[in-house]
């Protein structure tokens, strides 16, 4: 078997073979050209008709501007809509456009025509016919090809269709460019193309709508390069507005009753003639509206509402396998890969291209499977098929949950997974439900829901109305106090309008977040493109100067190969690859992630907010006791702290308050409710008695009974709750419990001890959760009917103070270690709690949020509404004169900046500070946010975001759901595997999860950048490899490319992603800038080092006595498999292969974010194995094994050489030369090892070592100075001169290499002789029987093309 192919015989030379196409007038070309003309004529005719129709009957899009942020305001009268929409008043029966976000929608109707559909079908056929043409070209290229070994793998065929290699190349060139432009245009306009063949029309005639939504995104960078802004401005100028947002073409559907509608992002829009309405239905705005509507619906009313708002379901369906496959494969990423691989398919790399295509298809298959599995998982979450007992037409009937509509009156049952949002309006005596809301909030403890009061108070399901609302997706554990207690509720919202639907919408359609590397990636791509174009031009010159025979299509193919290697389609993937393994590692630690993108964001967190109770502290609170007051000659005084658990004798009024002033209920024989109230009630030893026919009561061990006739549940805004109690004599009493500050406001000052606030603060500073209890006797002036009519404000006034109620708030054992780890990692922990500031201060000191020796100044508002700042934790602080905010900023700013002092702020003070921008000046110094409502917690997270900081939030998912969703990386401590309340959920319920999240985030970000740098280095080095090869007129053998692309890149690229994050957080965060000085220094530094050693190796080679330059003049570029039998290939391959694999090794250095590279055993085995294998391969003597890689230990230029090029060289006067001696190969190996050592030194000491740290510190100082002076691009000023110097160095080295190689060719001792063009032509006809060269010359002769020598 011969080493190189010697057949098949070209079809033009084979008498038994008939060339199918010899002229453009043959049937095949006529059919193709006719088809192109047919499509062009018909599509042009349709385009003209469409233009004329649009000119005569212009159709303007409907514009919907959505302004509000949270539903419909109280005074909403409809929507301000332009172009074809009308206004609608808000009534219980009428639809309105609900404005939920600040965005703009453009909606255009289209209808289909037979002519347009026919033209669209023709274009689809065009897409398929490109594939058919490729198949035809490849059949011609490989027909009857030989397969005889690694150097004879079906490299060329007999050109049975087109007859010649040159004609085949011309046709391939034309088809490649046309198909690339066609597919690229189609992909970039995916979602629009079909509309090009539809007619724009009014909505009344439309069959589809094209919806453009203004793009919404948050940019998580505040210090990007000026070039990014320039590029963004250019994009906004060049790219049409309708291409910058999100767009979608949606079919218009019709209900059974004729209502036309479409669904966009889960929202239903109604099409009524030429008008468009967003479907939603308001039953009412106040509680009294719901009570008035709670009469049940008729069947006609229910069907009418169902017709408008649609079924009660989340309108999400999994994609079909066919759609998912086409959508995934027909993406710009895969189209780019496939068109580039098509170049390899044509250029005799059939098996290699097939292997790479299979890898791409396998990767796409995994993506398609994962995408399908994720969609099915979402369907499983949203699927809730159940039945409801509904009042219809005055009778109770069973209705499928999908048929529920707002306004339906539903009977609640126990153990029921709720299909919609409902408001409890009737419940006889008890009127409550016990619910499990962990699926939505992450809170594992059951919560109570109560019947809403029939008053004019505005209903807000996410505010004070939450205690009366049964949310979709939660489970009713118990309905009523007994099985006979019917609880009735009215449906308030269904489908995507429910709380569950809104949370799922945030998952299905998340806010787009742009990281700094997302903004800089287009700049990197443009720079690589510019570099690739330069290499493209240089490679044309290099290929021409060797004198090798190469058809222009062949040269173009080789130039495109450089561009393909530089412009890697995997760059965007590399920036996300680190997050995929981080997801699995977090899952193994009980941390579940809904959005992997947030993992990298977590690596840049600067501020982490923590809830206190249940997060930093244990979930359960221990009841300490009560400190009652007694009368004395000096007025009320505090007694000692007493606890009923210890058998202490406690004043009766205090015991009664502890036994009744709560919202505890029974479920399954245990008490459920707020944990504080459960602990308080359990301590008194009384029994709770609940009956369906009367109000609940409590009974003491001695038999005393107190009945709770009215209850005002705890309200975050009021910070209090109250009950009306009837004793055994029928007397009515009011007990009110709340924060000790709020109780002070509600209670007569004469009933307070003079040291009330001092004692309360002392308890708080000792770590107690402190509540106040007050009392009021209504006497005989009120009866049950009168009390029922009293408002809450009327009940909670003229109270007398009874006692302070104390609970111990113990710190979790691992909270302190976690906070210390965060602080050591330069993450600022802050506390955001609903508790009082002094308790927060105590816990803050215990867990090290507040460092030892740091003085904390508390900002609070006094009774006169004045904001003042006092020191916390000092005796006599109440008597000190408070500081104003101006005095604070004037006299204490240095201590605040030095960290000697920090701030705490209450919710009331926060409200005052928010009225001016001064809150943003105080934000960096504020450590504790106390007495904060859930809405205030959201504001804190938003303010940190607005300050340009990446902020995290950790809570138990109870009253901090909004903040968890608002933060860049919220983590809920919940037993649920995947809570929709936040991007991350930790089943461990430990704040140590935040440390794990940041560890993985930093490690994932560093891993992604390592893979990115490796791909950049791969492209840069491969471009140099190609340029060197083209300069010498060589091409590496097939096994070389297989080992580079198929072994080294795949194995090491995968191994790089397996590094684990460092156990300890470093005092710095990984860079998120692709163009930052550290990444540029790392990549450019390694590249320059590699270039220097490559130049040195080539210089060492050309100066060797036995070296003979490769006689490229006798070669043919298309026969690339013959161009690797030379010293140049061996030197270039081995030097650069070691550089490739060492780049992967050095970029995997952990720095301070990942574990040491030596702990990545897969990488070490892969790298070490390749290092040893290639070293042995280089040093081994010639054998059949080394011949697979064409190692120059083989004597290529020997007598009777098997290489056709060396044979021609000797035939024209050249002398044989020896193989590459062992001594030279060993010296070359030593040079390569030196290269590895220098590269490792650069990366370890300079790029990621003390030099880079010193540079980073200097950049921070420069950045700070420029920021203070409000200059743009602070780092650019500092980095640009250095970058320019590096670029000049690279250009100088490249120029030196070209000069040295060019002039040294005249000094080679055993060089090739100068051969005139006439001798070359004579040799082409009379030399050895090398059929391929004969074929090329004969084909040139047939076509009349002169071969350029």
Description:
- This is Cation-transporting P-type ATPase N-terminal domain-containing protein.
- It is a multi-pass membrane protein.
- Keywords: ATP-binding, Magnesium, Membrane, Metal-binding, Nucleotide-binding, Translocase, Transmembrane, Transmembrane helix.
- InterPro entries: ATPase_P-typ_cation-transptr_N, ATPase_P-typ_cyto_dom_N, ATPase_P-typ_P_site, ATPase_P-typ_TM_dom_sf, ATPase_P-typ_transduc_dom_A_sf, ATPase_P-type_domA, HAD-like_sf, HAD_sf.
- It is a single chain.
- The chain is an alpha+beta fold.
- Helix content is 45%, strand content 17%.
- The protein has 43 helices and 45 strands.
- A ten-stranded mixed sheet has the order 25-45-44-43-26-38-42-41-39-40, sandwiched between helices. It has a nine-stranded antiparallel sheet with strand order 28-27-37-36-35-34-33-32-31. Strands 1, 2, 3, 6, 7 and 9 form a six-stranded antiparallel sheet that branches.
- Helix 21 (756-765) runs parallel beside helix 25 (837-846).
- The radius of gyration is 39 Å and the shape is globular.
- The two termini are 32 Å apart.
- The relative contact order is 0.07.
- The model is unreliable at 68-101 and 1261-1349 (pLDDT under 50).
């Amino acid at each position: 078997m011969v080493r190189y192919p010697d057949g098949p015989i070209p079809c033009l030379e084979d008498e038994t073979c008939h060339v199918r196409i010899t002229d453009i007038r043959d049937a095949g070309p006529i059919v193709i050209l006719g088809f192109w003309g047919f499509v062009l004529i018909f599509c042009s005719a349709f385009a003209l008709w469409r233009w004329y129709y649009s000119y005569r009957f212009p159709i303007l899009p409907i514009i919907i501007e959505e302004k509000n942020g949270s539903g419909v305001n109280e005074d909403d009268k409809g929507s301000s809509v332009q172009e074809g929409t009308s206004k609608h008043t808000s009534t219980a029966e009428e639809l309105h456009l609900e404005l939920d976000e600040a965005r703009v929608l453009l909606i255009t109707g289209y209808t289909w025509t037979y002519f347009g559909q026919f033209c669209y079908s023709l274009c689809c056929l065009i897409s398929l016919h490109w594939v058919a043409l490729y198949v035809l070209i490849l059949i011609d290229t490989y027909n009857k090809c030989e397969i005889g070994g690694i150097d004879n793998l079906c490299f060329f065929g007999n050109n049975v269709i087109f007859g010649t290699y040159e004609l085949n190349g011309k046709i391939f060139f034309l088809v490649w460019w046309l198909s690339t432009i066609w597919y690229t245009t189609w992909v970039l306009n995916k979602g629009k193309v079909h509309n090009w063949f539809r007619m724009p029309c009014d909505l009344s005639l439309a069959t589809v709508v094209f919806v453009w939504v203004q793009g919404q995104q948050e940019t998580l960078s505040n210090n990007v390069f000026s070039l990014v802004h320039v590029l963004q401005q250019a994009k906004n100028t060049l790219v049409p507005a309708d291409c910058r947002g999100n767009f979608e073409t949606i079919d218009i559907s019709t209900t059974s009753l004729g209502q036309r509608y479409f669904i966009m992002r889960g929202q239903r829009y109604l099409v009524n003639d030429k008008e468009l309405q967003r479907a939603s239905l308001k039953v009412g705005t106040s509680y009294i509206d719901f009570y008035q509507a709670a009469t049940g619906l008729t069947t006609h009313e229910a069907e009418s509402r169902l017709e408008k708002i649609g079924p009660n379901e989340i309108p999400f369906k999994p994609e079909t396998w066919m759609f998912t496959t086409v959508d995934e494969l027909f993406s710009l990423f895969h189209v780019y890969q496939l068109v580039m691989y098509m170049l390899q398919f044509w250029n005799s790399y059939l098996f290699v291209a097939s292997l790479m295509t299979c890898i791409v298809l396998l990767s796409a298959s995994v993506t398609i499977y994962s995408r399908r599995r994720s969609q099915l998982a979402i369907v499983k979450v949203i699927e809730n098929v159940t039945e409801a007992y509904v009042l219809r037409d005055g009778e109770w009937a069973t209705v499928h949950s999908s048929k529920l509509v707002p306004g339906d009156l539903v009977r609640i049952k126990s153990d029921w997974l709720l299909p919609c949002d409902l408001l409890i309006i009737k419940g006889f005596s008890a009127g409550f439900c016990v619910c499990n809301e962990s699926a939505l909030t992450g809170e594992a403890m059951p919560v109570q829901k109560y019947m809403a009061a029939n008053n004019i108070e505005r209903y807000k399901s996410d505010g004070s109305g939450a205690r009366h609302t049964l949310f979709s997706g939660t489970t009713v554990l118990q309905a009523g106090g007994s099985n006979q207690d019917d609880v009735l509720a009215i449906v308030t919202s269904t489908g995507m309008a429910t709380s569950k639907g809104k949370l799922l919408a945030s998952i299905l359609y998340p806010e787009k977040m742009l990281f700094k590397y997302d903004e800089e990636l287009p700049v990197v791509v443009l720079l690589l493109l510019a570099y690739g174009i330069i290499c493209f031009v240089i490679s044309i010159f290099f290929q021409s100067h060797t004198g090798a025979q190469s058809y222009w299509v062949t040269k173009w193919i080789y130039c495109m190969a450089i561009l393909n290697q530089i412009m890697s389609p995997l760059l965007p993937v590399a920036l996300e690859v680190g997050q995929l393994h981080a997801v699995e590692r977090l899952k193994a630690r009980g941390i579940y992630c809904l959005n992997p993108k947030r993992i990298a964001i977590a690596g840049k967190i600067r501020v982490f907010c923590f809830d206190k109770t249940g997060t930093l502290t244990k979930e359960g609170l221990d009841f300490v006791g009560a400190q009652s007051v007694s009368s004395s000659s000096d007025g009320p005084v505090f007694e000692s702290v007493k606890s009923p658990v210890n058998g202490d004798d406690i004043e009766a009024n205090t015991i009664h308050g502890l036994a009744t002033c709560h919202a505890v209920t029974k479920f399954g024989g245990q008490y459920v409710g707020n944990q504080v109230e459960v602990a308080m009630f359990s301590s008194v030893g009384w029994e709770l008695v609940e009956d369906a026919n009367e109000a609940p009561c409590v009974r003491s061990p001695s038999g005393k009974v107190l009945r709770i006739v009215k209850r005002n549940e705890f309200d975050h805004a009021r910070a209090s709750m109250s009950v009306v109690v009837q004793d055994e004599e029928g007397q009515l009493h009011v007990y009110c419990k709340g924060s000790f500050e709020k109780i002070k406001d509600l209670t007569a000052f004469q009933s307070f001890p003079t040291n009330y606030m001092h004692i309360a603060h002392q308890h708080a500073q000792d770590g107690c959760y402190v509540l106040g209890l007050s009392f009021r006797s209504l006497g005989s002036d009120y009866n049950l009917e009168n009390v029922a009519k009293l408002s809450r404000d009327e009940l909670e006034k003229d109270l007398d103070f009874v006692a302070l109620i104390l609970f111990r708030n113990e710190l979790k054992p691992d909270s302190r270690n976690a906070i210390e780890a965060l602080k050591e990692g330069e993450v600022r922990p802050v506390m955001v709690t609903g508790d009082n500031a002094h308790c927060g201060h105590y816990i803050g000191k215990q867990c090290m949020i507040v460092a030892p020796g740091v003085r904390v100044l508390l900002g609070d508002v006094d009774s006169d509404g004045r904001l003042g700042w006092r020191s916390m934790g000092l005796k006599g602080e109440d008597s000190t004169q408070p500081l104003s905010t101006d005095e604070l900023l004037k006299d204490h700013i240095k201590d605040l900046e030095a960290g000697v002092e920090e701030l705490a702020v209450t919710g009331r003070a926060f409200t005052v500070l928010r009225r001016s921008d001064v809150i943003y000046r105080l934000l960096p110094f504020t450590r504790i946010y106390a007495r904060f409502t859930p809405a205030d917690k959201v504001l804190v997270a938003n303010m940190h975001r607005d300050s340009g900081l990446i902020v995290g939030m950790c809570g138990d998912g109870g009253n901090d759901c909004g903040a968890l969703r608002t933060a860049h990386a919220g983590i809920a401590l919940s037993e649920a595997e995947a809570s929709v309340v936040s991007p991350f959920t930790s089943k461990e319920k430990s704040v140590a999860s935040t440390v794990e999240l940041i560890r993985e985030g930093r490690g994932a970000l560093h891993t992604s950048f390592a893979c990115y740098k490796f791909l950049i280095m791969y492209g840069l080095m491969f471009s140099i490899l190609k340029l060197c090869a083209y300069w010498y007129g060589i091409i590496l053998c097939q096994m070389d490319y297989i080992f580079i692309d198929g072994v080294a890149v795949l194995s090491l690229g995968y191994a790089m992603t397996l590094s684990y994050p460092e156990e300890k957080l470093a005092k710095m965060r990984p860079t998120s800038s692709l163009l930052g000085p550290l990444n540029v220094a790392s990549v450019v530094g390694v590249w320059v080092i590699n270039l220097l050693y490559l130049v040195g190796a080539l210089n060492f080679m050309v100066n060797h006595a036995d070296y003979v330059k490769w006689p490229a003049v006798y070669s043919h570029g298309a026969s690339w498999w013959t161009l690797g039998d030379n010293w140049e290939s061996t030197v270039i391959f081995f030097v650069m292969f070691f550089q490739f694999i060492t780049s992967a090794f050095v970029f995997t250095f952990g720095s301070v974010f990942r574990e040491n590279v030596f702990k990545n055993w897969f990488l070490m085995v892969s790298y070490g194995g390749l290092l040893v294998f290639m070293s042995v391969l280089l040093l081994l003597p010639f054998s059949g094994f080394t011949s697979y890689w064409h190692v120059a230990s083989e004597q290529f230029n020997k007598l009777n050489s098997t290489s056709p090029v060396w044979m021609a060289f000797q035939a024209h006067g050249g002398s044989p030369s020896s193989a590459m001696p062992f001594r030279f190969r060993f010296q070359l190996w030593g040079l390569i090892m030196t290269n590895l050592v220098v590269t490792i030194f650069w990366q370890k000491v300079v790029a990621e070592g003390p030099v880079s740290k010193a540079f980073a510190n200097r950049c921070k100082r420069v950045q700070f100075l420029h920021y203070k002076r409000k200059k743009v691009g602070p780092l650019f000023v500092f980095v640009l001169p250095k970058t320019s110097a590096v670029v000049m160095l690279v250009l100088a080295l490249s120029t030196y290499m070209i000069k040295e190689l060019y002039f040294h060719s005249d000094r080679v001792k055993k060089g090739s002789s100068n051969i005139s063009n006439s001798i070359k032509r004579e040799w082409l006809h009379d030399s050895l029987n090398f059929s391929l060269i004969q074929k090329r010359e004969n084909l040139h002769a047939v076509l009349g093309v002169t071969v350029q020598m």
